Amino acid sequence: MEDKSSVVAALQRVKAINGKSFSEIAATTGLTNVYVAQLFRRQAQLKPETVASLRSAVPQLDDTHIEAMMLPPMRSYDPNLLQEPAVYRLHEAVMHFGESIKEIINEDFGDGIMSAIDFYCSVDKIKGIDGKDRVLVTFDGKYLPHVEQKTEHSAARLYK
After folding, report:
1. So what's the pLDDT on residue 158?
2. Which of 92, 103, 134, 154 is catalytic?
């Protein structure tokens, strides 16, 4: 397995053969369902402590698959992905509500951002108050305050 697309295709075939959903694999591994999906798309790195539980959930994964999943991934996306309606709607929701979400973050935390590195994401199916199926997307990111950039706190000054 050389390039990312061939690795992802192989991993997707293994998952299809296995027949379990990302959520079912997540339940066995203790990972979020989105992180499991990211592993199978080579958008996240499999950690050594998770190998045994992933092998238990997906025994069809061979050593080559596991080795590929343990490499630091090239995190990227296809710009055409926004043409996929589910992805476009998620993007649209963030664009529509983003300014208000940002203002609430600033009110509740101060001037800063939500990390997308120290970050958990999950997708759950829930019932609404009307009894209809609803999609619950959870973004759980560490708060990172913006810092005032004082020269006395900059390590770069030590090298001048």
Report:
1. 81
2. 92
